[in-house]
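Appendix B. One record, verbatim.
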Amino acid sequence: MDFTTEIKKHEKGFYVLSQRHVRAFLFEGKDFNILVDTCFGGDISQAVKSISEKPVKVIFTHCDRDHIGGESLFEDKYIHPAEYSCCLEKNGFMIDAKPLWEGDIIDNGNFKFEIIHIPGHTPGSIALLERDKRLLISGDSVQTGSIYMFGAGRSLQAFKASMGKLIGIKDSFDVAISSHNDLEILPEKLYELESLADDILKGNIPEAKSAPSQMPAEVKIYGKNNVSFFLYEIKN
């Protein structure tokens, strides 16, 4: 399958690298560049080099295949350790990436990211907070459209707690930059995501809708207020 990378420069000074339905992000620095995720792989290494020949540090928001598909194309890679076993279970291999912890700082001279651990979508999902530029790079955890919350490693309880954690720092960023669907998400969306998770955990189940045909038959869409989850069908 052809995974050609489309490159666009964002007004905040970073590059959005898109392949089909997923995005990666390149942040140019003084001595090295930061690449957040690698999409499906494809020509992403060549796309990065077409922007800059500086060394690259790759930060993975989580280990889903559409975010780590190009991991073998880069050498200097980092991921939260909670993703190691998750990656092995989902993808059949142990990712060769160094550990990245809550509170770690990745600073390339132009962008200074603080690592925020936000489990739920996966055990080691992270967000990257740039306080000076008031940006949050949120991976899959904050987005419009349906968020995958079925299968190994997904946890609504952890997801709800993580949304509460991000709400607690929402005054530190003006916009979340998402890997899927709408690129920019306002912080108010965090309340909607937390509320939906809370409703489902309390048994206030929204009406189920059919998932796309490529999904497992037992998966449904549960949502309200323009946010939704892909979940295994909830039996009352």
